[in-house]
Each structure stands twice: as C-alpha cells, then as structure tokens.
Amino acid sequence: MLCDVCGKNPATVHLTEIINEQMTELHLCETCAQAKSQEMEQQFGLGDLLAGLVESDKAGSSAEKEGLALKCPNCKLTYVDFKKIGRLGCGECYTTFKKYLGPLLKRIHGSGQHLGKSPLKMARVLKKKIDAQDLRSKLQKAIEMEEFEEAARIRDQIRELERKEQDAA
Amino acid sequence: MQLNDLLNHTSEWLKGTGPHSDIVISSRIRLARNLNKFPFPHWAEKKQSEEVSGVVEAAMQKNDALKNTTCFKLADMDNVDKQFLVERHLMSMEHAQKTDSKAIIIDDEETVALMINEEDHLRLQVMQSGFNLFEAWNIINKIDDALAKELSFAFLADWGYLTACPTNTGTGMRGSVMLHLPALVMTRQINRVLAAIAKLSFATRGLFGEGTQAAGNFFQISNQVSLGHSEDEIIDNINGLIRQIIEQENQAREAMLSKNRALLEDRVNRSFGILKSAYIITSEETIELLSMVRLGCDLGIVNKCMDRSHINELFLITQPAHLQKLENKKLTSQERDVKRAELIRSKLKI
Q1: Which of A65, A160, B100, B322 is the most buried if burial means most Cβ atoms within 10 Å?
Q2: Do B147 and B126 meet the contact criterion of CB atoms below 8 Å apart?
C-alpha cells in the first residue's frame, strides 16, 4: 500500500480520525506521518491550554475588554495575539501586559516573586568597579590641577565606596 | 569539530559514571534566556533572528567559562544530522523543525550545548553522568554569568528572566534527571510513583524528551515550577524526590531478587539471548531488551557481564539516525531493523 498523501513511499503508519462521527482512515509513509503529527500538535498545543487559563481568568469583564486592546510598543504583539498563541512577543510584553500576566504567573507557578539569580547583581558589581575607576582618574586630575579641596572630597567618596564593598562582601 | 567526530565519542550522559549510576543515567540543567528588546524567535523577523544568532555566537566565542566549542547552523544540516543530535540529547525535537536562523553550539565533551533561536533566544544546557544536578548547576551558572557580561538579558526584578512561554519565567531553569526504573515497572508500583510525582508538580517524560513514551523503563523527571524558588531550592527539591525514588527502586530490586530470582534471571537472560541472536529488530524492542540486560548487569545476574558504558552506548548507536550515520547512507525502517540486529550481534559477540 502506498502513502495516501505523497503516493510514492510505502505506507507504514495507519491513522484513524473520527470527526463529527465520520470515520476516515489515512495510510501514511514515515515522512508524511511526521508532518501530520506536527500539524495535529499545532492544532492543540500548549498555547491553547495557556490561552484557556487566561480565558477563565476574567472572561467578559470590562477589565478584560480593556486588556484586549493593549499592544506591546516594542514588538507590536497584542493581548489577543498572546491569547491565541500562548507565547509573549518580547521581554517588553511582560511590562505591557503586567496587570494580566501577574495572576497568570501566580496560577502557573504558585508564586509571583522571583527568588533566583539575577544578571543585575553582576551589573551592579561591574558598575561599582567602573565608578571607582572614574573617581580615581578624577582624583588624579584634581591633584594635577592642584584642586586639593576637590581631591579630598573625591578621596572620601572612594573610601565610602570601598567601605560599602567590604560590607557587601 | 565535525559532527561525525561525535560518532566515536561517548556522550557525557552515557558514560555510566557518577553517583547512583546504576539507577540514574544522567542529570541535566537547562536555562532559558532572551535578549532584551529583541522579539522572541516565534515572533521575530528573519533579519532580527539572524542578528540574535550573530550576537549570541560572538558572546559564546568570548565566553571564558567555555573552551573548544563548535557552532552548527541548522539550515546547513540534513534530517539525519538533526535527528542524530536529538538522539544524543544535545538538541530538542522542536529545534530540528523550521530551521531558519537556528544554530547549535556544542563543546567537545558534549557536556554543554546551546540552542540559539529555539523557543527562546538561548537555551543553554549542561549534562552530567549519574545523579549530579549540583555539579551541572555549578558549570552552567558560570557560563551564564560569563554570557551576561556580553549580553543584556530580558529580566524584571519581580519576575526574573523573561521567556516566550510564561511556564518558564523566573529562573528559566529546568533540572531533569533520567532514571532507569525496571524493578518499579515489573513490580507494578510505577503508576503509584508517577502519580505522586505529578501531585508534587514535577513532570515525567520518556527517554527522548517531550512527547515521547517511557520506553525501556526510562523516566525523565523535571521541575515544572520555575518562579518563586531560587535555583538551589529547585535543585534541592528535585534531589529530595529523586533520592526517594532511588530508594524505592532499590527496595523493589532487592524484593525481586529474594522472592522471584528465577523469574528475574529468566527475563534478563532471555533478553540477552534475543539480542545476541536476532536478525531483525526494531529500536523499541532493542530498548526494552537492553533495559533488562542493564538491570541484569547491575544485579550481577547475567552470565557474562558487560560494562555499563557499553550497554549505554548500544542504546544510543542503535537509534535510527546513529545507524544511518554509521552506515554512511540513508536506510529505510526495514533496512535499519536488519542493520541494527547485525550491529548488536557484533557488539555482543562473546
């Protein structure tokens, strides 16, 4: 038996579909069966389940209607798009749809507060280093210009920064 | 590194070493990260995706926590090559589809893999052999820190790392552990165990990831929740659960040895016998039979014991894409069944 879709390869997968009490049989080769299974997955995927969660949240309320009109200024994804595909469009979407995503995240994870690592800590450490470097070069300049009052002020700032760093460590 | 070089290499997760490696095959941590401002892969224009790919590749090259990596463009790969990487657990099935602007970076040891433009811009994973999630976390954490020096990640203080799907938001972390639980399956206790796992918000999958069946008594267990706990806490929780499952599997193994030793010996040695003498064999049957042989070797009840890493290797090289790579040509499913049996016979020749 040859594949019903491509008609070239031997059919090795046999699929029975029942839609509206109508039974259809499909005989597919491996390649076409794979394509078919992807198609079926797309018809009902995680997106639908998530959209369902959003749906049951505030269906029909005026707040929901207001939300539907929202559009992310960065990537142009609308809240309607999100409900359809179950995926956000970019990081900014989280800020745009904050009001609606809060309850959803709580429902999925049982919490709405991140407690894990953050890249900001790194960024802060780096910023402190850059600040300290800046101050040192300013101090150097002040000394060269013989602005000793200014130099003393900068020296105190550097000490303060170093003290904070030690406390943090 | 060329893709074919991997053929002669034992994947990290199949080494059969590390803590509890009789029951735990491998431990894996993956992190989802996205670049600030750039649309997520499913929503991005081709040009934007290509830009992301370029930026991430450059950042990986500068990464001082990583050495000797190779980048492969998915668009340049044929289906067998893609399937080959999926079988080696370096890449997801999803990544192998719609391959525009997608890439994968692998290190020579096959410990680290980074998928670019999968569901998120970056999907970084680290694999370790045996029960070793914390070691995997230590490695991946350093690589992530080094990447954060070069890249600006989408992040909010309240919600953590922002991902395309809200189920990954927060730490963006999934820890998963691959377990071999033949005794719990044979003593029909597995459904009780799986039900308990689901109640505790952990997910169970089969040997080859999302959407696959638990073939050959292999179960992959991972956390579902990624927001509201620190990475250490999430790993602690998984570890606690895995320790209990290991204990239950060990108890079931001991009970079978003391009460049903003959039955166990029969199943193990029959499986060995079929593998040694079959001329046509499917990959499903291979996995089921190898599972029994692995159990037999772990319990010392196979006449001629094999090294665990050899059994693990057989699991991998009998997979469809691996067979085709070894033969260096495309094979139909019927041809593969013949070649597979031939390969197993040659490897089990005593």
Answers
A1: B322
A2: no
* Packing angle of the helix pair B231-259, B261-277 (nearest 10 deg): 100
- More confidently predicted of B172 and A16: B172
Count of CB atoms situated within 10 Å of the CB of B278: 19
Q: Which of A91-100, A117-126, B67-76 has the lowest mean pLDDT?
A: A117-126
Q: What is the residue-averaged pLDDT of chain B?
A: 91
Residue with tokens 């609606």: A100
| B149 near A CB under 8 A | yes
Q: Angle of helix B320-327 relative to helix B333-348, nearest 10 degrees?
A: 80
Question: Which residues of A fall within a CB distance of 8 Å from B228?
Answer: 109-115
Q: Alpha carbon of B315 to those of A99, A165, B223, B237, B311: distances in Å? A: 49, 53, 25, 29, 7
Q: Report B:31-70 residues touching A (Cβ under 8 A).
A: 34, 36-40, 42-43
Computed on alpha carbons and rounded to an integer, the radius of gyration of chain A in Å comes to: 30
pLDDT band at A42 (very low <50, low <70, confident <90, very high): very low
Q: Which among B29, B140, B158 is the top mutation candidate for probing chain A, defined by the most A β-carbons within 10 Å of its own β-carbon?
A: B158
The reported pTM is 0.79
A30/B228 Cβ within 8 A = no
Q: Is A121 on the interface with B (CB under 8 A)?
A: no
Please give the pLDDT value at position A32: 75
**Contacts with B229 from chain A: Cβ below 8 Å:** 111, 115-116
A39 touching B (Cβ < 8 Å): no
Q: Give the number of other Cβ atoms within 10 Å of residue A19's Cβ.
A: 7
Backbone dihedral angles phi then psi of residue B169, each to the nearest 5 degrees? -60, 155
**Torsion angle, CA of B205/B207/B208/B214, rounded to 10 degrees?**
-50
Return the minimum-mean-pLDDT range out of A46-60, B76-90, B306-320.
A46-60
Chain B residues 95-134 within an 8 A CB cutoff of chain A? 97, 119
Residue A38 vs residues A43, B204, B339: alpha-carbon distances, Å: 9, 21, 28
**DSSP single-letter state for residue B153:** B
Mean pLDDT of B167-174: 96
More confident residue, B232 or A160: B232
Query: Is B231 within 8 Å of B214 (Cβ atoms)?
Result: no
| Better pLDDT: A36 or B182 | B182
Place of tokens 């003290």: A163
How far is the C-alpha of B31 from the C-alpha of B114, rounded, in Å? 9
Q: What is the pLDDT of residues B46-100, one digit of tens each?
A: 999 999 999 999 998 888 888 789 999 999 999 999 999 999 999 998 899 888 8
Query: Which residues lie across from B170 on neighbouring strands?
Result: B160, B161
